[in-house]
Amino acid sequence: MRLNVRNYYGVLTMGLFVACQICANAESDHVADRINQPNDHKKNSIEQFKFLFEQRNFTQLLEKSQKYLLELESEDRNFDAVIYFAAVANYHVGNHRATHTLLNSFSTKYPNSKYLESAQFYLASNQIKMHWWRAGSLALNRFIQRFPNSIHLADALYGCASADYFFKDYNSCLDCIIKVERINDDPPLDLRIKLLKGYALKEQGRLAESEGAFLIAKNRARLIDSSHSIARSLLNLIIVSADQKRWRDSSSYYYMFMHDFKDSVYAINAAVAGIKILEQMENEDAAMERFENILYSMTTANAKHLNDALLKYSMSVQKKYGTSNILMQLGNLLGRCEESSCVREALIFAQLDILEKHIPENDQEIEVYYKEIMNEFNFQSLSVPALLKLASHYRSKDFTLATKLYREVLDRGSSRYEAEAIFGMAKIQSSSSDQTMLRSSILGFRQVVEMFGDVKLQEESLSELNKILECHNELSKSDEVLMSNSELIALVSMPRRVVNRKILRN
User: Each residue of 464-482: pLDDT tens digit?
Assistant: First the structure.
């Protein structure tokens, strides 16, 4: 009996021990689940980012990555991945300043990140997107040297070719294009390469080869169903075939364009080109009628190339019929365009361009035009080119007004025109005796020279810099002069408007 009791307690003790172990293991598993759950959530989120990237769903990728970025601390081990995908999403939707802000210090903060190579490519390519041609070109060259076998090599070479085209180095541009064609297997990039090749060959006067490149681009655009690129290719085919005086082929391209793309952003350019072509075919009246119909129905969304188109139209008519005739024609067109603000603006500025170029001595009438423009339009309704023209005119007459106009341009964030606005602001500041204004002027001129690379503005900026330092020798050792190029880029890349501090956190 004593033995049975001992056995009973032994079995009971063992049972209690096993039960305690089961409970302990269950509790530890529950705790482990709670610990692993955030990590699993993070891992799943990164995988979701990758999926959205591969699907090219950049809008949703931007939304999710920015939301996730707000929830993380910079010490989090996945922070580099979230920053990278947020930056890439911003890049592809066109938020290039945000992209630069996110990636500018990526390599120093995350030197061991598996996204480092791609981050450096996007940082360099993004500078080209921001029209920082010189800075972007140098950054892309450094990237290619560091990662000669990169998956981004073809895109990096295309960026270099684009910069060479901007700098009018067409031989180097075409050399880069040849390299891209050898290694590229991406259809959209192939289309962009063919278009760029067509432009470079055209600038070299190799019109038949240029036409061939644009023909290939048109066919590539059809394969990927890019109506915008088909219209762009056809417009260039109209122009290069006309430049070769092959009027029948050119008119064929023209009618093809007008059949399918008369409502596109390039329609006004094609209509202007068609006037000269159909004149050779003794059908100029039909071309003029189509040009006027497109002009009168122009929407703000399609007015991107309107100023350039009207400039070409005005120059063509002025050369053939004289200055008074083109001014009268533009006036007649203006009288029939009461509704569209963007068309009225373009026509008025076209008249002003003709006056300034061909009758510059008529300064009183020119001044009347500027005053009427200021009375009819408010700043918010004017296009950026119009704002810059007004600012340039008033730069030597009214510093306050010119500064306001330049700031309006900069606040709109249009990278294409940023260099001209910064140069104009620097010119105004350079006339001041205030040290703060002069330092700001130095920074502005340096940006134009070292980042944007515009040849004309670069020469003027260097000249202005020398004048400032000659007249104010004490500024030769200022921080603005001694600042390195990388520091300059970091400084000017900061956003001008208040944005979420968590995203901008260093």
Answer: 988 998 888 888 878 788 7
